């Protein structure tokens, strides 16, 4: 029964309003149970850090996600490891063998020049859906807003379907201060200059998720979401939590 007035929420095969989970070793049996109930709330699944390379039965896990219409991809750290060891050709073959259709290009650990990343992307877009990540995992690395904007715009122009803003699975670097607070001025600047529907904001904590929902709206793209938080996140998006209680009223004010 639908009897409440809630914020308008994208559904089905969403182009925005995405929830991207991070899988840091969820056993297949447990994953099946979660997906059986909540797969309609999940769009993408990052097999976090480089864990895909050492995950038992990784092909079965990939196939399980795909069975539930969730798009799996490997964390950018695995790409960077392959880049560092000059194994990108082998990495492409590995992804094709697993049936993975999405690839993340990042420079969170290595300092890969922007133009080199763009060249790599140009060689991948005919074979994969490409997501690029901007920002460093080093909490002490400060990047001005102008560079964030330049990189995001140029990566999208190069053919990336989305750009992820680095936040780590801890929410303590990139778009966050060391203590987890959002760099709100940076986010405001990015959203003022770039279509936020093409950005996936890494937001691993409920507090960070609620910030983006309140600032950008219920259909903001959020990444690094823990699997066990998926249902509560959807409740937050629908104004069913105290901190997002008045979302539908804000939407009406904007119309």
UniProtKB/TrEMBL annotation:
Source domain of life: Bacteria
InterPro entries (UniProt xref): Aldolase_TIM (IPR013785), ComA_synth (IPR003830), ComA_synth_sf (IPR036112)
Residues that span the membrane, as ranges: none
Family: Belongs to the phosphosulfolactate synthase family.
Protein name: Phosphosulfolactate synthase
Naturally occurring in which organism (per UniProt): Neobacillus paridis
């Amino acid at each position: 029964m639908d009897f409440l007035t809630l914020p308008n929420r994208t559904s089905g095969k969403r182009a925005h309003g995405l929830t991207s989970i991070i899988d840091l070793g969820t056993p297949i049996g447990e994953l099946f149970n979660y997906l059986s109930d909540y797969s309609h709330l999940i769009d993408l699944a990052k097999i976090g850090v480089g864990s895909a390379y050492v995950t038992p039965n990784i092909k079965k896990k990939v196939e399980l996600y795909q069975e539930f219409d969730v798009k799996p991809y490997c964390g950018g750290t695995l790409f960077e490891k392959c880049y560092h060891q000059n194994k990108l050709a082998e990495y492409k073959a590995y992804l094709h063998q697993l049936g993975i259709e999405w690839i993340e290009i990042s420079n969170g650990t290595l300092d890969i020049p922007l133009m080199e990343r763009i060249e790599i992307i140009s060689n991948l877009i005919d074979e994969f859906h490409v997501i690029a990540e901007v920002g460093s995992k080093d909490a002490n690395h400060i990047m001005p807003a102008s560079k964030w904007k330049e990189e995001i715009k140029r990566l999208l122009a190069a053919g990336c379907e989305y750009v992820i803003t680095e936040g780590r699975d801890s929410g303590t670097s990139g778009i966050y201060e060391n203590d987890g607070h959002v760099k709100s001025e940076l986010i405001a600047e990015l959203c003022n200059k770039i279509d936020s529907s093409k950005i996936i904001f890494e937001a691993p904590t409920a507090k960070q998720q609620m910030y983006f929902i309140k600032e950008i709206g219920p259909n903001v793209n959020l990444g690094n979401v823990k699997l066990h938080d998926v249902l509560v996140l959807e409740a937050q998006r629908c104004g069913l939590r105290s901190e997002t209680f008045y979302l539908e009223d804000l939407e009406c004010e904007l119309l």
